[in-house]
Write a structure and sequence with these properties.
about 325 residues, alpha/beta, 10 helices, 9-stranded mixed sheet, binds adenosine-5'-diphosphate, 4-stranded mixed sheet
Length: about 325
């Protein structure tokens, strides 16, 4: 059977409230944006012409309806979206620093995304995919934790590669120990892992890419580890080789979604080559990093992320400039 979707993801679909200037009375204004890391990854894949579906839960409210419409507009299959009558759609207020770096305040005590149940997972979507992607926000508590592991099992049963962006949001976890425990359980099933340096530290106690990756490769059946460092670029490692690539020099105004664009772009490259991850050459890895860094950089040039994912042509133009941060 030919797969219907390139990627099926499970995870949070929420509203990002991004700072948007001030009112005449000098009160801060916030813009309503579609957010959630797995949703952003799929939006990037859609912008690159890839087919995807999202398994998620939103509140049966005004924001949930807006999020549903966003998926439809982006061409992401929304048949795996579940409505909660009980809890509202999760909100995340984004705070932007001087360089566009961001932090979050979540309104999720709990939010609808956390209430995704095991029996609400449409496994037939997963069976129709080439790859399954998850983050870790769905692991912060029950019942979405059990739902996530059930979906992982379904993906494994049909032999799908599983990718994961750790995307650690400390305030959402009961403790960092519990976060680590759940992430480790997840990593037993993951072949493609994306982390930041802080997340590498959480998982291994080390920030050094080489030593940290070695620990992860020894403990888990990972095949590809990606480490992103914002304006310092990124790094990729397989068991055989590694590559690194600087970031592109752009006028960043909002770094929200840079990592998601990066992740989506890496998955696009992987799907394009269909190559076995264990036999990837250094030059291929480097090309993937360049492509993904360009995608990440371009999304920081605009406010928001989900609706601002770059098209393939824009990424290719950016690559041609070779205007990297040295
Ligand atoms: P995350 O959002 O997961 O923390 P990063 O912020 O590291 O991920 O961003 C992912 C990639 O996007 C980086 O490796 C880099 O290539 C690109 N990127 C992020 N921020 C910038 C920036 N300010 N300027 C240029 N490129 C950036």
């Amino acid at each position: 059977m030919h797969p219907t979707y390139d990627v099926v993801a499970l995870g949070e679909l929420l509203i990002d409230l991004t700072p948007s200037g001030h009112s005449q009375q000098k009160h801060p204004l916030y813009e309503q944006n579609t957010g959630g890391a797995p949703a952003n990854v799929l939006a990037c894949l859609s912008a690159l012409g890839r087919k995807s579906a999202l398994i998620c839960k939103v509140g049966d409210d005004f924001f949930g309806t807006a999020l549903h419409q966003s998926l439809v507009r982006a061409g992401i299959d929304s048949s795996g979206l579940v409505w909660s009558k009980k809890e509202h759609t999760t909100l995340a207020f984004v705070h932007l620093g001087q360089q566009g770096e961001r932090s979050f305040t979540f309104y999720r005590q709990p939010g609808a995304d956390q209430l995704l149940n095991e029996d609400e997972i449409d496994e037939s979507l997963i069976h129709k995919a080439r790859l399954f992607h998850v983050g870790t926000l769905s692991l912060t508590g029950q019942p979405s934790r059990a739902a996530t592991f059930k979906a992982i099992e379904a993906a494994q049963k049909v032999g799908l590669p599983i990718s994961c962006d750790i995307n650690y949001r400390e305030p959402l976890w009961p403790s960092s120990g519990e976060a680590k425990e759940m992430m480790e359980r997840l990593l037993e099933s993951v072949s493609i892992l994306k982390v930041s340096e802080e997340e590498l530290f959480l998982l291994t106690g080390l920030t050094d890419a080489d030593a940290g990756s070695r620990i992860l490769f020894n403990r888990f059946p990972l095949q590809l580890i990606l480490i992103t460092r914002g304006a310092q670029g990124s790094d990729a490692r397989t068991r055989q080789t590694h590559a690194t690539h600087p970031a592109f020099n752009v006028k960043s105004v909002d770094t929200t979604g840079a990592g998601d664009a990066f992740m989506g772009a890496i998955l696009d490259q992987l799907l394009a080559t269909g190559q076995n991850l264990d036999s990837l050459e250094q030059t291929t890895l480097q090309q993937w990093l360049a492509f993904a860094n360009a995608a990440g950089a371009l999304v920081t040039e605009r406010y928001g992320a989900f609706d601002e994912m770059p098209a393939r042509e824009a990424i290719e133009r950016c690559l041609k400039t070779n205007n990297v941060i040295r």
